[in-house]
Amino acid sequence: MGDRGRSGSRNDAENTTVFEHYTSHFSEKRPNSSAALLEAVRSIHPDKHITAIEPYGCDLIGFALAGGHAKATLVRNGTQFSHTRTYSPPRSRMAGGRGTLGKSIAFGFWDYSWERHDLQVYSLEWPRGDGCGTEECQYILTPAIDEEDCPIADALIEAAGKYTAELHKEIYVFDAGDWDKSKLLWEAVQSASWDDVILDPATKDGIINDVHTFFDNRSLYEDFGVQWKRGIIFHGHPGCGKTITIKALMKSLQDRNVASLYVKSFKARQGPQYAIREIFEKARTMAPCLLIFEDLDSLVVDKVRSYFLNEVDGLEKNDGILMIGSTNHLERLDPGISKRPSRFDRKYYYKLPGEKERILYCEYWQNKLKGKIEFDSAICQVVARLTEGFSFAYLQELFVQTLLSLIGGRADTDVDEVEATEEVDPSKYHDEDEKTKDKKASKKDNKGKGKKGKGKGKKAPKEVKEMPEVAIPEQLQSDPLMLALHKQAKALWRDLDSSEDSVHSRSKFGGLGSDDEDESEDSSDSDSD
């Protein structure tokens, strides 16, 4: 038998022995799996230098499988490897396809080539002792040396570790106590554009300049001896564009090599303080970066407030970190967060869109539908008046429901099935006459008056908001799109809660981490505080 045959037989025997130890060990009680497995590998490979690493920060196998960096070949020696077959369905049933088969390898022995070095690597995975998830370890086998550390292994770890830490068309997302790289969120962000964000040009420029100027002026901060960090809060009504603004910022910063880190929660098995520590440690490592806290008021609760503030502006430097926090309830934030300089220095208020912004949003849809449906420009003015008090989320819902009704052939049917007998006469849509105005003024003057001492304990009836009566231009009174928009607007008005903030009390769309990409068509209106 040649040298290669004898060497291959010896490796097969050694691999078998390690595998037997692996399976035996996890069939018994074990005090320290990592130490036991390392000792097993050392004892079975006495002619090798063994370097153990955790793949979380340095994934050797992922580094090789990414292509072009190294080559890893799984040694399939009979049954001496352990894996679970996996199946990933197509990204969308509509797109079709058969899905993808894969492997989740719990025990693997790899022939590994890197930089003209032929090495071997064990990759092992086992359940945590507390039953929460798994632990992993990889062992690099290099020629035996007398030194404690192996230069070849260290160089490989450095190269693979750098690659592992970098983002490759991904966004870091923190949830359940761990950072994960999300390709799905990265793809969702690619659809975001400043053209989709409807707000006052001065305000839009203010937000863009605040963010981009920060990343442009590191040297200026250093020259003045000021720590290179900032914080911005987007606050105001839900459905008015905070999320799409954040997405547009993330998209615009990609070409500047600014990483985006998105925090979904502070929940972690080790507790919220551990989570906060992990979040800021990663941000300091990834700087310059955009660190995003969506729904900041629900994240920073009383029991973690002090710890959070210490990470924001404690003894450790946060150079290169721009924090953006969003909230629908600024009043719920501790003043130490919302009003203290050097933490969140700038605030932008997202109010309900005014008539000008509602017109711009209708024109945005007019442009989207160009060549697909007849859209008279005069419709924008009428719809803007019909939807006073609507958020952008509700405006979007109006157009989506209108298009569905047109596609489904329901444009000529009253949206209120209960009042199916009601006949719609566009010619009756007119501006308020003096009698109607006087009646509404009388209601307003009497609001909150009377019934003193009567009906004790009963709440006064809420004021019911009604859709404004708007004059429909003659050329639009038989326009199918105009008629459908009016009917759907009436349906949305009836759907709204009658409370004071009913129009903007709920958003119909998910947040930044939502799978619903309709949010990318949302828009915003904001003013700098």
UniProtKB/TrEMBL annotation:
Composition bias type Acidic residues, residue spans: 514-529
InterPro entries assigned: AAA+_ATPase, AAA_ATPase_domain, ATPase_AAA_core, P-loop_NTPase
UniProt feature, compositional bias: Basic and acidic residues: 425-448, 494-504
Residues making up the signal peptide according to the UniProt record: none
Biased composition (Basic residues): 449-459
Superkingdom to which the source organism belongs: Eukaryota
Pfam family, one: AAA
SMART domains on file: AAA (SM00382)
Cited CDD domains: RecA-like_protease
AAA+ ATPase domain sequence ranges: 228-354
Residue numbers spanned by region Disordered: 417-479, 494-529
Name the record gives this protein: AAA+ ATPase domain-containing protein
Native organism: Zasmidium cellare
Lineage: Eukaryota, Fungi, Dikarya, Ascomycota, Pezizomycotina
